[in-house]
Amino acid sequence: MSKTSFSSLLRSTSVLCGALAVAFSAYASAPKILKKVPPEFPAEASKQSIKSGTVKAKMAIEADGSVSGVDIVEAQPRKVFDKAVTRALMDWRFEGNGEKQSHEVKLVFSNED
Predict the structure, then answer these.
(1) Torsion of CA 10, 12, 18, 24, to 10 degrees
(2) What does the pLDDT look like over 45-76, one tens digit per residue?
(3) What is the pLDDT of residue 4?
(4) Which of 60, 73, 82, 104 is the most buried (most CB within 10 A)?
(5) Could you list the residue range(s) of the whole structural domain that residue 21 is in?
(6) Domain check: are 37 and 78 in the same one?
(7) Contact yes or no for 16/52 (Cβ under 8 A)
């Protein structure tokens, strides 16, 4: 193996290790959930014959583990489940670590009545 090829391989390995370290630290620092409150399936969705959906939301978590805000990142269908998700996530509780943090979740709705 030439010196140039070896240097290139070394750089590639270094970049890969760095990416894995970032991914692991993101996973390792995920806040521990102490209390989950499931969202209710909205009556309005049932009236509109909507049987399923998904919502991705980002929570702002205070140093004591309480949720201080919820942002809807993505929803399908749009605006149908947002209020139910926000109400439920505001009641979630995390293990406080003394620092503000955020956590993203994806909730799936299904109502097969």
Answers:
(1) -120
(2) 999 999 999 999 999 999 999 999 999 999 99
(3) 45
(4) 82
(5) 1-30
(6) yes
(7) no
